[in-house]
Amino acid sequence: MECFTELPNNSLSLNVYVQPRASRNKFAGMHGKAVKLCITAPPVDDKANGAVLIFLSKLFGIPKSAMHIKSGRQGRNKQIIISGPSLAQAEKALEAAL
User: Fold this and answer.
1) Architecture of domain 4-97 in this structure
2) What pLDDT sits at residue 73?
3) Which helix (H) or strand (E) holds 8?
């Protein structure tokens, strides 16, 4: 999938486009080269960013501490660094969720 990039330190980069204040947490397909993620949390006081990390940690079956937002903390387009799953495992989990 175009939204993932393998990094040299056994981690992945995931491009995410976030829609805050949605009716429920869910994936809504692709948005260019990013996966679109609808989150119920408002974009205030880092609540939406926290909700994104919690949602993705459940999806990939890894602790929230194994991820961080590299860029886009203040915007909708985010780059998430994920440590743990292989590219094949992450793609399989994401495809199942889409």
Assistant:
1) 2-Layer Sandwich (3.30)
2) 94
3) none
